[in-house]
Amino acid sequence: MFFQSVSVNRDEDARSSGWARWLISMNVAVALMASAGCGGGGSSSSADGSASDASVTEQGELALAITDAEGDFVSYTVDVDSITLEKANGAVVETVPLNTRIDFAQYTDLTEFFTIRTLPAGNYTKVNLNLDFSDSEIVVQDESGETHQATAVDGEGNVLADYTVNVTLAEDQVVKIRRGVPAALTIDFDLDSSNTIVSYDPATVEVEPFILTSASLDTEREHRGRGLLQSVDVDNSSFTMKLKPFHHRSGEFGGVNINVSDSTHYEIDGSQYEGAAGLVAMTDLVTDTPLIVFGQMSEGLTFNAVYVLGGSSVPWVGRDTARGVVIARDGNVLTLRGSHVERTDGSVTFYDNIQVTLGENTQVTRQALSNEGLDASDVSVGQRLVVFGELSGDQIGEYSIDASQGHVRLLMNLIKGEVTSVSPLVVDLRWINGRRLGLFDFAGTGLTEDNDANPDHYEIDVASLTLDNLELGSLVKVRGYPAAYGEAPEDFAAQTVIDINTEQRAGAMNVLWLDGGSSAPFIATNAESLVLDVSNANYQVKMAGVPLDFFDGLQNDPVVSSFGFNDKGVYAIKLSGEPGIQLFNQFSNYVEALNQYLSNGNKLRRMVALGRYDQTQDEMNSVVVTSRFKP
User: Fold this and answer.
1) Within a domain: 220
2) CA-based, 20 to 30 A from 541: which of 103, 126, 179, 417?
């Protein structure tokens, strides 16, 4: 039954007993691809997991990527001091060459390549993460969308410093590096089960890590690679890049080969290309030209580029850049909220608001779509934006960028809402690019004042997209761009429309039993489901981060059940005050263990389940469930 154990150690004065409230999980996806090594013959391993003499010089490649999930953190920046892999015989391999500062809140829809390292063949049984919160930058948003700089503390209120998280893999989850045999490991640092927002004034977040693992790699998620151009191969439709992840400008993180196609879009030194013309344009770039590549992983861990930025189109090349969401526009002056400013020296700072001035000469480009006809009028409220220019500020903390002679890039946007009309598509907005609606001022967005965008009746141009499966009341995610400023309706041009209710991990059920926990939290249990007694619990369900607000009178007792992935789920139990976490991949074993904990006199304090939520049955078909007991 026991699947895996996880230990968490930290300085004696900083013991954590916090528990999750909001979802912002960190996933470390480790894709291991064996490559041909030195020496002949097949590889084999000794009992302790080390390579045998016949293959002692054999090596493989490790590709390490970082991702995240949705939550109420605007910034969650901590230092990752190291990530190591360890064999059963104690041999340790360092995978991260330099201390790396990461804002995990920026990876809700994205996975970033971290490093590709060569390591000895063999069996790796442990993953160790060293995190440093001493200089963390944690910004939370309250119910109105206002932001607060928070302090990370443990359960006793002590300010956090270092974490060392040790993950011991079960026998059937050992990472095996073999020549020609790809393998994968995903480590989920589940911050939904690791953070409680204690207060907003002063802003305080209580932290204790909750670690999950599964042997899979998400090939559907968008990936990003940042680095420097190494070579271009026009004949084979590819190029290679030396990785410089996050905000590193130096250090050796390995190289990656990028495949391109006729549909790959490019923006190089401000000029736009598509297909073969873009790759030819890259041949004019000198070695070590900065690059950013967006794309998807395919079978065999191949990185296929969808969108490539090069040269001066890359942030940090000779100018300051600010990235945020436009919450208001007055004439040619934008208010950019939640801005992450990257200076030319590579430093990154969070600013709540920045004023951006546009002009007739502002160059406007758009991510992965044609720039033809774009100008400053295309920047409207709700638009996610990168501004290139020079940051200036005064002594009272008001910062601005003059982009009247500069460059802005329109990024793809994500809105969420409830369908109030299918044809034409109209939604009651709940969320714009991860920010709450109270922040946004839509004045001036319409042809007339009466036509200004209305978040309660937000009109979406779907062009030729098929919406056959949408129904009134459905929650949807729509990717695309707001209409040009002063030209609504329609208010938004869709590139994709996704029914949230059909997504396998869109739902998040969060149950907190009061009075220190419940000794009888279940009305009934079986090998496939748990019927919860929430009569003395706080109970909430979110769909893709949007709280469902119709639980005043539940029609059924809520149920947590297995999604039926045939042992591909991840189910976890933690006893408060103990370092270990038990993980299971069979729901039946998880249920058996839950009942055993209760029989031993423990109380269930919290349960968090992720999966597909059936609103008619109040049932969460779960792919991930975490449970925390109090002794």
Assistant:
1) no
2) 103
